[in-house]
Amino acid sequence: MDGYHPYRSWVYDKLYVQRRGLKPAFAKGVEEFTTKAISRNQFVKDGGIRCPCHNCMCSGILSASEVKLHLYRFGFQPNYWYWTEHGEEAPHIDPENIPSSSGNIDNDDPFTLMQHMVDDAFGPTYDFQNMGDEGNEEENNEEPPNDDVQDFYDLLTAANKPLYEGASDSKLSICVKLLACKSNWNVPQKCLDFFASMLVDVCPFKDSLPKKIYQAKKLVIMLGLKFEKIDCCVKGCMLYYKDNSADIECRFCHEPRYIPRKPEIGIHKDIPVKRVFYMPITPWLKRLYASTETVAQMRWHQHNRSSSGSLRHPSDGEAWNHFDAKYPNFANEPRNVRLGLCSDGFTPYIQASSTPYSCWPVVVTPYNLPPEMCMTKPFMFLTCLIPGPSNPKANIDVYLQPLIDELKQLWSEGALTYDISMKQNFVMRATIM
Ligand SMILES: [Zn+2]
Ligand SMILES: [Zn+2]
């Protein structure tokens, strides 16, 4: 975040996440901005000031009240912490002078953002410290986690161990920070390797640090969710998957699977012409039950149906009740997951090239959650990324094949899942609503 202003955290903090309306601090800040701007005579033209909103980008002169409306609507132009077009100077920030008491800095710290992202990938908090010592003889049906989950908890516990007694950092957090350098500032890999080895050289606790970026990546990948790369026909007729996994050309249009090898320009290996990325949903659903923060919410729909007849959540709808009546076995277990599925075109390279390109992310979301969590970012799971360059249209079901297979499996057999709140393993099933 270039040129961050320690006291103006409100500048890019306009809206509430799940509620309408402007944040009061933002409205107050805009007021402060227009008052200041209008008071600097040499920057006022014809009674108006430059509008620093995201649309005008300081190119047009508007009246103070119009500027306010623009800012309410569009927000400030990027990186306008210091109002240099309105008579302010961007100071050289001495890091010592940033007050440590300002809690907002942490929120905008790129490392914190990265940490949040990793937290999301791992699931929020795992109560793994309190597990495993249940030696009591009380008859409470508590079970240890199944092997899968136990492996995950073990890995997480090991990776999250403080570097030394009293340290706030763990191997995991150091790895995340190193990787964040790469994504935040595009630091070259060689430089990061140098930093990593420098850290190892100067620290007495060498074993708990990654020696190379490769090791940091490996650790984070081990804890993250797995994904599969599946080759597909360039025209989207079929996936090279299951029975077809060994084919080298499309069964329908006979387009080749691989780019022809050209040793003279360095293509020695088989490189597929096109690929889809598939993220299996079962491990992710299991993690919703492995985390103390989400596990109770997954049962929300059981006791919170609307009695007034108003529709606030899919569980208040007729389709939900009809489904329950038709499949009582499934409905009897409130932890069974009901999923929503959606997809839409997405253009990753805006204006970068004249030929349009869109890819199609396929997202699933559990409807078990309460309305304020349902369909929010942390609970929208990207399961499949259909590559471009154009709308898959009718071929979309080709690309959804792995997801459909997984859903069939989840519907008919289910998956053994550990519920951390009950400390029990159960068979979780899922359906698409
Ligand atoms: Zn404007
Ligand atoms: Zn084909």
Q: Which H/E pattern describes the elements?
A: HEEHHHHHHHEEEEHHHHHEEEHHEEE
| Helical coverage, percent range | 25-40%
Shape: globular
Number of strands: 12
Largest sheet: 6 strands, mixed
> What is the averaged pLDDT score?
80
Region (Disordered): 128-148
InterPro entries: Transpos_assoc, Transposase_21
Domain Transposase-associated: 8-88
Pfam families: Transpos_assoc, Transposase_21
Give a written overview of the molecule.
This protein is of the alpha+beta class. It folds into 3 domains: about 10-95, no CATH class; about 110-130 and about 145-225, no CATH class; about 280-430, no CATH class. Helices cover about 35% and strands about 10% of the residues. Mean pLDDT is about 80; it is low at about 95-110 and about 125-140. The site of one zinc ion (ZN) has 7 residues, from loops. Pfam families: Transpos_assoc, Transposase_21. InterPro entries: Transpos_assoc, Transposase_21.
Task: List the SSEs and their pairings.
Blueprint: H1 24-39, E1 49-50, E2 61-62, H2 64-74, H3 104-108, H4 110-122, H5 147-159, H6 171-185, H7 189-202, H8 213-223, E3 228-231, E4 258-259, E5 271-272, E6 275-278, H9 282-290, H10 292-295, H11 300-303, H12 318-326, H13 328-332, E7 337-343, E8 360-366, E9 381-386, H14 396-399, H15 401-412, E10 415-419, E11 424-428, E12 430-432
Parallel strand pairs: 7-12
Antiparallel strand pairs: 1-2, 3-6, 4-5, 6-9, 7-8, 8-9, 10-11
Helix pairs in contact: 1-2, 4-6, 6-8
Bound molecules: zinc ion (2 copies).
